[in-house]
């Protein structure tokens, strides 16, 4: 007999017809209990959720976890994307190694989990010598913490000397990249419902990978039925680069290399014109909106409303921790709301839009229909927030309060029906020790200036 648990009488739930809570069974949502109702079948346990506002587990669609080691780095602050990369690429390529990548991954995943995130995707494109097992490290860390992860096998193969902007110490040759992509897919990609690990292939950006790599990555992804990810149209500089080197804009590049597909999601996706938005939507190409990073680097404002209307899934990403400087997806929801209202108006972008981008929209970007919503049959991935802090005093609408009053930390987090955060702390993680070890590793990146 499987255990049925009633998460009873929450303050509010981001779902219709769940006023009295949610019943979880065998890692999935078995029933929504509506107003004035009781569960239709006996339950074995009851969790009193009366001090919690419950949302689906948040889904992060874009990150660079190794960059937690260079937060607020003196060499890169107050710069836009290209000079920012020029400052940091040499530091990353000479100092990222298996040990500090493990710490960076552990720290970033822990931060995400504590913010209410239950599924993460990391665009790990940096492969200096000795970092061949980056995906294995990340798979191991995600498994230990108990979060779902899309292992996004990134790549670089176009250096400054060859017309790109990647540091020569961070690149791999095309055949090595593709061989490892296939290895990682064969070892970790689980396409089944409820999978804890999946794999996506992710050449970094038009300005640091070759067309051959893009084309052959698309062929491999089609053969192995996995998703693809890349940066596109993040800045005007990138559009200018594409015009100078290819003779056309980034979306035309995407089409030429065979990436106009609903198995693709793009990071940032800011500088699209009306025709490009329509073409992306028609193809079902997803976009990971990264509001915090876009503001820090002054990259621009993503056309979220137009993209969704055209048919593109829109998700949220915290992006690299050196351009965001934290890994808090709940904070990203607030930033998405604020920049969305600045871009459009106060009525056109609501807290429900921002939540949707961070949950079901993000899940759609990753190609997952089993997560991202509190609904019968979905995986039991949920975040539970309390309203006990001073910032929430006087709040009338509990769900709106999470965004408008600035929630940043979940009280409890459930993944696949199991608690992974209790009383605001991740189970089995010594936060003090993690902070110390990661901080010590990060000192070397300051010494590298």
UniProtKB/TrEMBL annotation:
Keywords: Hydrolase. Transmembrane segments: none annotated. Residues 53-419 form the Amidohydrolase-related domain. It is an enzyme of class 3 (hydrolase). InterPro entries: Amidohydro-rel, Metal-dep_hydrolase_composite, Metal_Hydrolase, MTA/SAH_deaminase. It holds the Pfam family Amidohydro_1. It comes from the Bacteria. GO terms for molecular function: 8-oxoguanine deaminase activity. PANTHER family: AMIDOHYDROLASE-RELATED DOMAIN-CONTAINING PROTEIN, AMINOHYDROLASE SSNA-RELATED. Belongs to the metallo-dependent hydrolases superfamily. ATZ/TRZ family. This is 8-oxoguanine deaminase.
């Amino acid at each position: 007999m499987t255990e049925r648990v009633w998460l009873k009488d929450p303050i509010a739930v981001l779902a219709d017809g769940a006023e009295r809570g949610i019943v979880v069974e065998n890692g999935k949502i078995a029933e929504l209990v509506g107003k004035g109702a009781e569960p239709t079948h006996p339950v074995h346990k009851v969790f009193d959720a009366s001090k919690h506002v419950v949302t689906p587990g948040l889904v992060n669609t874009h990150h660079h976890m190794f960059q937690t080691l260079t937060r607020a780095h003196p060499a890169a602050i107050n710069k836009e994307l290209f000079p920012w990369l020029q400052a940091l690429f040499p530091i990353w390529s000479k100092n990222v190694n298996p040990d500090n990548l493990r710490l960076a991954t552990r720290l970033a995943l822990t931060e995400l989990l504590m913010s209410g995130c239950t599924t993460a995707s990391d665009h790990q494109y940096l492969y200096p010598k000795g970092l061949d097992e980056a995906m294995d490290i990340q798979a191991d860390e995600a498994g230990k913490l108990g979060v779902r992860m899309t292992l996004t096998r990134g790549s670089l193969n176009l250096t400054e000397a060859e017309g790109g902007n990647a540091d020569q110490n961070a690149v791999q040759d095309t055949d090595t990249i593709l061989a490892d992509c296939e290895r990682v897919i064969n070892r970790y990609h689980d396409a089944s419902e409820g999978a804890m690990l999946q794999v996506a292939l992710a050449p970094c950006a038009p300005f640091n990978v070759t067309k051959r790599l893009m084309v052959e990555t698309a062929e491999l992804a089609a053969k192995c039925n996995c998703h693809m990810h890349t940066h596109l149209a993040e800045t005007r500089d990138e559009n200018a680069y594409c015009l100078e080197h290819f003779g056309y804009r980034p979306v035309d590049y995407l089409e030429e290399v065979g990436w106009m597909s609903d198995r693709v999601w793009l990071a940032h996706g800011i500088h699209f014109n009306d025709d490009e938005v329509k073409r992306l939507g028609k193809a079902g190409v997803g976009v990971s909106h990264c509001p915090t990073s876009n503001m820090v680097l002054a990259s621009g404002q993503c056309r979220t409303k137009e993209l969704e209307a055209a048919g593109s899934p829109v998700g949220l990403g915290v992006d690299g921790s050196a351009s965001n400087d934290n890994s808090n997806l709940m904070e990203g929801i607030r930033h998405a709301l604020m920049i969305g209202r600045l871009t459009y108006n106060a009525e056109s972008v609501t807290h429900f839009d921002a939540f949707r981008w961070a949950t079901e929209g993000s899940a759609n970007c990753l190609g997952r229909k089993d997560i991202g919503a509190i609904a019968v049959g979905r995986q039991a991935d949920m975040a539970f927030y309390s309203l006990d802090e001073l910032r929430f005093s006087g709040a009338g609408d509990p769900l709106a309060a999470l965004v408008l009053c600035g929630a940043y930390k979940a009280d409890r987090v459930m993944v696949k029906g199991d608690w992974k955060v209790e009383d605001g702390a991740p189970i089995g993680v010594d936060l003090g020790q993690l902070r110390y070890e990661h901080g010590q590793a990060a000192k070397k990146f300051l010494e590298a200036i």
